[in-house]
């Protein structure tokens, strides 16, 4: 890894990057809040969370039994320390690339 | 895969800038839709107001156990507000810490005023600093929540 960061193929997928971006701004976020903020379906979010979880970037903690109604169930999502590191590295790389766009966009 | 930062491809740079803009927009959306429960600020205000009323209560040691009870109620309120909002905030922020310190110091000042009023046998006048403590802490609780909400939108 350099100061310019490092691309991460797992995080680079658009939805997974947005998931990590939101989780990076909080300690923990509820599944429903994340879903509504991103405007995606439960299935899409679950699928992408599974990939992040398998990579060790996101931890999932379910409170209360699944047999209970939605109003009494909450699923807390959190970026793990490995996830934070990978996301930060990835964002540094993206920023370095975007800096090129800023230079091109700047008036002469 | 290592990134290809040095490529200088304008399309790649524009796409990267769009990605960063989208992440910022998501955070702004999250901050915008995050609202504190209506009872949170008045709840902490009531705790502060009741604490300031203690010197006016009858008995040798009025308010025994109040601080412990208030602490437990405060923790339960924070826990409940997390479940309702679906957010555990990452940090408090300088403004929130100042507001918290202001709430504690302000409540203690009003408590001292209440003690002074009781020593002058002006028991009913204690309602005035109690109401002021309620108002101050309610306002500062809103400041704290607002500060933490703004932190969501901070670029990381």
Please characterize this protein's 3D structure.
The complex is a heterodimer of chains A (108) and B (156). Chain A is α+β, with helices and mostly antiparallel strands and 108 residues long. Chain A has a single domain (9-63, 72-99), classed as Winged helix-like DNA-binding domain superfamily/Winged helix DNA-binding domain (Arc Repressor Mutant, subunit A). Helices cover 56% and strands 16% of the residues of chain A. Chain A contains 5 helices and 3 strands, in the order ααβααββα. In chain A, strands 1-3-2 form a 3-stranded antiparallel sheet. The termini of chain A are far apart. The model of chain A has no long low-confidence stretch (mean pLDDT 85). Chain B has one domain. Chain B has helices spanning 10-33, 40-53, 66-85, 94-119, 127-152, and one strand at residues 87-89. Chain B contains 5 helices and 1 strand. The longest helix of chain B has 26 residues, at 94-119. By secondary structure, chain B is mainly α. The interface between A and B is large, with 37 and 34 residues. β1 of chain A pairs antiparallel with β1 of chain B, so a sheet runs across the interface.
| Structural category of chain A | alpha+beta
CATH superfamily of chain A: Winged helix-like DNA-binding domain superfamily/Winged helix DNA-binding domain
| Total count of strands of chain B | 1
Level-2 CATH architecture of chain A: Orthogonal Bundle
Chain-averaged pLDDT of chain B? 89
Count of extended strands of chain A: 3
Considering DSSP H and I runs of 4 or more, what fraction of the residues of chain B is helical?
Answer: over 70%
Mean pLDDT of chain A: 85
Separation of termini of chain A? 33 Å
Query: Looking at the chains present, what oligomeric state does this protein adopt?
Result: heterodimer
Largest sheet of chain A: 3 strands, antiparallel
- The third-level CATH topology of chain A is Arc Repressor Mutant, subunit A
**What sequence of helices (H) and strands (E) makes up the elements of chain B?**
HHHEHH
Structural class assignment of chain B: mainly alpha
If helices are DSSP runs of H or I spanning 4 or more residues, what is the number of helices of chain A? 5
């Amino acid at each position: 890894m350099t100061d310019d960061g490092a691309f991460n193929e797992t995080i680079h997928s658009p939805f997974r990057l947005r998931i990590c971006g939101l989780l990076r701004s909080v300690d923990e976020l509820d599944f429903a809040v994340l879903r509504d903020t991103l405007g995606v379906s439960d299935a899409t979010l679950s699928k992408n969370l599974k990939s992040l979880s398998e990579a060790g970037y996101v931890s999932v903690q379910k409170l209360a039994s699944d047999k209970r109604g939605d109003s009494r169930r909450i699923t807390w999502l959190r970026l793990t320390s490995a996830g934070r590191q990978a996301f930060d590295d990835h964002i540094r790389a993206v920023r370095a690339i975007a800096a090129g766009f800023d230079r091109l966009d700047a008036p002469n | 895969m290592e990134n290809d930062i040095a490529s200088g491809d304008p399309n790649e740079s524009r796409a990267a800038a769009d990605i960063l803009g989208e992440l910022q927009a998501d955070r702004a959306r999250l901050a915008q839709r995050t609202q504190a429960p209506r009872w949170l600020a008045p709840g902490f205000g009531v705790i502060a107001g009741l604490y300031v009323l203690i010197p006016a209560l009858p008995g040798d040691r009025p308010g025994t156990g109040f601080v412990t009870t208030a602490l437990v109620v405060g923790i339960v309120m924070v826990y409940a507000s997390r479940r309702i909002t679906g957010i555990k905030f990452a940090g408090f922020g300088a403004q929130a810490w100042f507001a918290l310190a202001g709430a504690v110091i302000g409540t203690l000042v009003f408590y001292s005023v209440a003690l002074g009023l009781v020593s002058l046998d002006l028991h009913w006048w204690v309602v005035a600093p109690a109401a002021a403590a309620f108002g101050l802490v309610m306002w500062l609780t809103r400041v704290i929540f607002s500060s933490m909400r703004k932190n969501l939108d901070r670029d990381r």
